[in-house]
Write a structure and sequence with these properties.
heterodimer, A: 261 residues, mainly alpha, two-stranded antiparallel sheet, 9 helices, 25% helix, B: 251 residues, two-stranded antiparallel ribbon, 4 strands, globular
């Protein structure tokens, strides 16, 4: 019995190593511009016999700041971590804070009328041929371009007023006085030949406020969070956003932007 | 008795594993004629469409543009047929259509179809003869492309999207230890690669950026078209040229 288990284990190791080897050392497929930042949420959907939800960051970030959802509404930063239930939404939490029939479409029973089930598919859309009301390429055609991701320079689009971000949701957000953001600062690149990084608090704060990054992702004491580029590529620190939603860290010079010494 | 048969079984598997690695190590893929090296047949839709498959010649394009332009700016994947190129996308100015628009290069009009859609029976042999003045090397296209670039014999553009593009200066030379005791180590010059490629062509998908943290990086996988083999099997100088990476090796 023991021996057959060992044989099985050896065979399994052979299989695992050959499968694993397939995934390394090659270039991954880059997502299409309209796919970048799309998140599939499937905690309970398939189990309940419904298509998983496909959430488009591009569509939502053209109207709201990141902070509004990821701080005020309490969405986690990783797909599937928030554990959103239909009931939560109907109680006005998470998606339901806007998708309530007033601000945006809903499936909730309103004023005793029959629920509008035709709206289910608009979010529970994976594997379905759903035509969105806003077509991505049409929507972004006059936006300033960037090299990766949605191929849209969202920062510039906001600065130019092409998109107007809402940072306040009535009944959820609480207005506070304005804070003065710390000025830009340099972060030393660990490797001599790489130009140093210029980090702009202001550019980040437009979208994120303070709370999205501090104190969980970055401590507030300068140079006390120790991180490196590999960790960022692995989705930590800057990589919490940059690589899946915000511009990707493959665009080196966007951050490593000081003059070469 | 059972134990002995088990031991035999395990050692047979191990011997098989080593033999497999060794044959793959020495079994370099056969090289085509120098004029055909780097030619790619794009036949993603052959069979569904009436158009013959496309033959693409790396050697005739790399004299004009660096790898970066197509594989970074125009988003061509690093494997044949992996990019979803369509005639419609080309006509919209994506992929091939960025240059093949009738202005920069011949366009997508009827008289030119056969220039690309030709089942690989293209004129690259003739185009290749035009490159006979470039420095020689023993394998691949039998052209030392690095030297051709350094000596200014070819002046490929490094960007078509940004006229002011300046590649980052990155000259670090890496010393790589070989896994096999008798094989001298390899060298990796960042600067020679940087002249053709963008950082993002290799990092972080193919190679981690942290030294010695890329797993399974050995010749066996390179020969399967991974790591260095993504380019150095079919397009950049082939692996037959051992000493170009392992300078202390003869041959």
């Amino acid at each position: 019995m023991k021996q057959s288990r060992l044989v099985l284990f050896v065979l399994l190791m052979f299989c695992v190593s050959s499968v694993f080897a397939q995934a390394v050392g090659t270039k991954k497929r880059a997502p299409k511009p309209d796919e970048y930042g799309n998140v599939v949420i499937n905690n309970y959907s398939e189990e309940a016999g419904i298509s998983p939800v496909v959430f488009s960051h591009w569509l939502h970030r053209s109207m709201y700041t990141c902070r509004l959802c990821h701080v005020d509404l309490g969405f986690a930063m990783e797909a599937g971590e928030t554990l959103i239930r239909e009931e939560d939404n109907r109680n006005g939490l998470y998606c339901g804070a806007c998708h309530n029939g007033k601000k945006s479409f809903t499936t909730k029973v309103l004023d005793g009328k029959e629920p509008d089930n035709s709206n289910c598919d608009r979010c529970h859309s994976q594997g379905k041929d759903i035509v969105p009301q806003k077509e991505f390429y049409e929507f972004v055609k006059d936006f300033p371009r960037s090299r990766f991701g949605n191929r849209v320079d969202w920062l510039k689009a906001e600065e130019l007023g092409l998109i107007k971000l809402n940072d306040y949701l009535k009944g959820v957000s609480i207005k506070r006085g304005e804070l003065k953001y710390p000025s830009d600062f340099e972060i030393d690149a660990k490797f001599n030949e790489m130009p140093d990084i210029i980090f702009s608090h202001e550019k980040h704060a437009v979208w994120n406020g303070c709370e999205l990054c501090h104190p969980q992702i970055f401590s507030i004491k300068k140079a006390s969070t120790v991180f490196d580029m590999q960790a960022i590529f692995d989705g930590k620190y800057c990589g919490a956003c940059h690589g899946s939603v915000a511009f990707t860290p493959m665009d080196c010079q966007l951050c490593h932007s000081t003059e070469i010494k | 008795m059972k134990r002995i048969s088990l031991l035999l079984c395990v050692s047979a598997l191990a011997v098989y594993g080593v033999a497999l690695a060794a044959t793959q190590f020495f079994d370099l893929p056969p090289l085509p004629h120098p004029s055909q090296y780097g030619n790619v047949l794009i036949d993603r839709q052959t069979g569904e469409m009436t158009m013959p498959s496309v033959s693409f010649s790396h050697s005739s394009h790399r004299t004009r543009y660096t790898c970066r332009v197509c594989h970074f700016e125009l988003e061509f994947m690093m494997q044949a047929n992996a990019t979803e190129i369509t005639e419609q996308a080309n006509r919209k100015g994506e992929y091939c259509g960025k240059c093949h628009n009738g202005e920069l290069a011949f366009g997508h009009t009827e008289e030119y179809c056969v220039y690309c859609h030709n089942f690989g029976m293209d004129g690259s042999q003739k185009r290749f003869e035009e490159l006979s003045n470039l420095p020689w090397e023993p394998y691949g296209n039998e052209i030392d492309w690095d030297l051709a670039l350094e000596s200014g014999l070819i002046k490929p553009k490094a960007s078509i999207l940004d006229d002011d593009f300046q590649p980052m200066e990155f000259t670090s030379m890496l010393e790589l230890d070989a896994d096999w005791g008798l094989i001298p180590g390899a060298e990796f010059p960042h600067d020679k690669h940087q002249k053709w490629l963008d950082c993002a062509n290799c990092h972080p998908d193919i190679f981690n950026i942290k030294k010695k943290s890329t797993k399974h990086f050995d010749m066996k996988y390179i020969l399967e078209g991974k790591y260095c083999g993504v380019c150095h099997l079919k397009v950049a100088f082939p692996l037959d040229n051992c000493s170009r990476c392992h300078p202390k090796m003869s041959g």
